[in-house]
Here is the input.
Amino acid sequence: MKSALSRLHSADIAETMVSLTDEERETLFQLLDDRTAAEVLDGVDSETQAGLLDDLELSEIAALLNAMPLDEAADLLGQLEEKERLSVLQIMKQETADKIRQLMKHKDDSAGGIMTPEIFSVYPEKTAEEVIDKLRHASLADEIISIYVVNEQGRLLGMVPLRKLITAPKDQPVGKLMLTDVVTVQADMDQEEAARYALKYDLLAIPVVDTDGRLVGRITMDDVMEVMEEEASQDMLRLAGTTEQTLETRSVLSTARLRIPWLLVCLLGCTLSAIVLEHFGATLAEAVALAFFIPAIMAMGGNSGIQTSTTVVRGLATGTVKKDQLYGLLLREIRVALVIGMVCGLLASIPAYWLTGMWLMGLIVGVSLACAMIVAVTGGVLWPMLGHSLGIDPAVAAGPFITTTNDITGLLIYFFIASTLLRLWN
Amino acid sequence: MKSALSRLHSADIAETMVSLTDEERETLFQLLDDRTAAEVLDGVDSETQAGLLDDLELSEIAALLNAMPLDEAADLLGQLEEKERLSVLQIMKQETADKIRQLMKHKDDSAGGIMTPEIFSVYPEKTAEEVIDKLRHASLADEIISIYVVNEQGRLLGMVPLRKLITAPKDQPVGKLMLTDVVTVQADMDQEEAARYALKYDLLAIPVVDTDGRLVGRITMDDVMEVMEEEASQDMLRLAGTTEQTLETRSVLSTARLRIPWLLVCLLGCTLSAIVLEHFGATLAEAVALAFFIPAIMAMGGNSGIQTSTTVVRGLATGTVKKDQLYGLLLREIRVALVIGMVCGLLASIPAYWLTGMWLMGLIVGVSLACAMIVAVTGGVLWPMLGHSLGIDPAVAAGPFITTTNDITGLLIYFFIASTLLRLWN
Here is the structure.
């Protein structure tokens, strides 16, 4: 069994883990050696992770953490309760524990929080041969792509791609080989911004420096990928009125708990909509046909709003939309809204006339629909952009807010126009 | 001016490009040397790209393409019209043109379509020293992380990380140094699947082989990242009823054109909703208060459906949801729906009673809301999962479909329950 397991890649074992029962999972986990167990632990979702850790002795956790890359060990420790965390750190190798404590000072979602402090750095006077010799004895978990050159204060001076080092004359000092035009990120920079940097400049690894320019770690592309994936999930699920944790949970009650808050906000909005309609109860009683097109006003307003807000939220995330473009974007979107509002308003007036036989009904529905869509699209730009400026996640500012307010304003517009026109004509 | 430009990173120039007028953009572009111009061209969105290419002579395009990595050159060529493309390939360096023609045989969204054919491969008998010497003379655009070892038929035997090569004894044949347990992808594999592989196994580069196991190229992590970003944008915007092209276009009319199709589908759905309501016109006229809660039925059904479908779509994309889990997932989601449906139904009956003063209204709204939510959540699992099984993008199957059908079924449920209960009690 053990030897069969050793032939599997840890990522495959992690994938299998998820479909096992709790008991099977623990049995399988016990069979793994520390290194593989550590990798598997890193590969499963946080719920499975917590389950597996729960059954381990503190000393077993410490052994696993010793076998992990430092950044992953720090992440895992961050999930334990403080008391447990301190005890585990006490049992671990002194040196590793110190490095992890250092690493845990950085915020989870900062560049420092996702970097690994294991960097291979040398002084500029070292020759290519000396550096290669040092490489031979270095023990690093991650692959090395570049050598970093630092001065005595630890400040980053430049970097030498491994290939350049290999092919250089042996006695060449790395100070002469290095590229000095290095893109770096600050340790306290937001992880998403750091990831965008790496993506923008097509880097496989990006060095992290502290406020004094001292090299403190590096972020590799696989960490960057994880951040981008996480942020995309976050945006998508927040726009849908839930959170990214919903991907990691399998329990019915926790899933319900993650979805109910936004549904309650929505229910409150619906109550306001009902109050609006009740206010126009006399108009409704007079022309019941008005009710037939409540779905159209709501759905068309809602959908055009979501189209816009999703475009803005994704644009802000990928960098095609910039913070300072609010006015330009708003102007453009209002023009887009005029086009789509008029097309849809015109088309909607046809079934409105056809179903009720009243041309006035066609006019009311067409005009209201166009207005509701224009308002919805405007909100679709405004809320996420304002959220972004105020430091609120645009996806949070967009999702719940837009749908609920659009429903209410759409209905207000519809019944205001309807009651006015009906009064004028009758 | 030229020298100031040469100090800027091409990614920064590309970013600036977007905010310039067409004329400024062309002037700036003319000032760049071929290599930088090629990089800038690769960094801007496809609309800007097309604009810049339009103003160039075929010979200028050929010069730019000669200066580009092959995979990017192939992508760019793919955007030209066939006649232009063939002419440009004729003017280009013979060798490069042949490689690009070869590359363009792969589908755009396959592993072959995003790989670069520039690989550094050696036979297993070569010694570390010979390989290093060969490296010295190789001209490759991308960074090298590993050396690939192939046999005489070009089949991949293994790979040697650069660091292992550096630190090995000079006379060691690479056949003895190589790792043989290499994860590869097939050239015809879907790009997203290939990217997921790289992500799953934490690879910085993944070798691409043809159906005979011959090494034909490699995909680096920066290409993988672009794919993941593209796929995330695609899912998000398709769920919102538009397409990923909307991020790249700045024209009002093209934006409107990208949004209108789904709005028209929605309008059709709204017409069906209106027909349903017209059918229940007598019930509505009898109890106008029923209209007050049309928004609640629609919004709560719609939102719980979107929460579910977005979770499923994202889960399928990130691999937390698997194709064969349909029944398990469906069962779990129905239980989630029972919980949230009952909570929300119960809560919704309060404003329904309060606004109308009729306890029967509270009952009708509560029960209908719960039923509409359960149906919506079920659809939220069913449509994307079925779409996925049938090879339809789950995001497409989810987005437009769910919202529209939920509105109609929700209203049918509401008025069916309302007319039945009203008849029973009166």
